[in-house]
Amino acid sequence: MPIKRLQISGVRNLQPLSLTPSLGVNFIYGENGSGKSSLLEALYILANGKSFRHHLLKPVIQHSMDTCVLFSEIDDNRMGTARLGVQRSRNGEKAIKLNGEALQSQAEASAWLPVQIIEPNTFKLLSGSPQERRQFIDWGVFHVEHSFLNQWREFKKLLLQRNAVLKKGEPDWLDVWDKGFVKAANAVNVARKAYIERLLPVFEHTLSRLDDNLDIQLSFYPGWERNSDLIEILDKQRDRDIQIGHTQSGPQRAELRIKTNGINAADVLSRGQQKAVVAALKLSQGLLFQQETERSTIYLVDDLASELDETHRFALCQLLEDLKCQVFITSIEHNSISDQWKPKGSKMFHVEHGNITDTTNTENE
Hints:
CATH topology of the largest domain: Rossmann fold
Mean pLDDT: 91
Low-confidence stretches: none
Helix content: 40-55%
Shape: globular
Order of helices and strands: EEEHEEEEHEHHHHEHEEHHEHHEHEEH
Structural class: alpha/beta
Radius of gyration: 22 Å
CATH superfamily of the largest domain: P-loop containing nucleotide triphosphate hydrolases
CATH class of the largest domain: Alpha Beta
Strand content: 15-25%
CATH architecture of the largest domain: 3-Layer(aba) Sandwich
Number of domains: 2
Largest sheet: 6 strands, antiparallel
């Protein structure tokens, strides 16, 4: 679902812009602080409603502006064409519109724009909290299983209700809530587990192309003891749950375990090897999404030259080209990547002091 046209205003140091990007690879180059990452950040906000650089959106809006506005024209080979727009204000107000009609949730916009980001903080996928890995799993399930969002929302609602009962210390009510809680938890767990099983062979193949010296094992932990019924676990932990005031076991504790030779990969792999593993995970999700939906992911790759060595960088570029998806990739020097990788139909954009110029024809002369 490539973006055919993009308009941005009010984002960080970017000047108001209107771009017609390549439907394939877009190289974005310029000095540090010029606005390269801000362009990717705007695309990410358009797709996900949040920034990958800051947990708050307020710093994204230009100091002299009250709002930022993002607009795109999308051409999806399965879902059709659409105009997607997002407006975010300093006071927290937001508006999301699809073809002029207001959307009620960010999830509706995200379904139109499946976006993956590869940037320095992405590598928390290995070294960060279990929440990072749960979000990774749920991105994949959400985009291939239409029922998952409602299943997840139902589970979250029941989890909040159960925790409220625990905090009040009213054990008699737990029997009322636990049956529904377990049913919703199992639905979420089944979807997650099936997704990881399908992802595993895709990941192994992708990783072998990035670095065939790495032996990585993925396993899914559901959030409670394997081969045990959740209802029995909840019964055993009831007194402790009441004491601490929240539910210890369930999908909210799920984890994707990433190991090499039985040891957590983050503890033994070099920084470069960790980067290769995370890149393989991200690319595998895009490939599986493509296989199961006949749609493609948009990849945002920020400062690739600093994240991977030359060998891994070239292998990643080849994998992206094989995916035949839209890519926005930044670097300081215009030739740091494009001299080695020249995909057909690619475009080149120069960023300077927040101004973005299409230099495709100039660079090709």
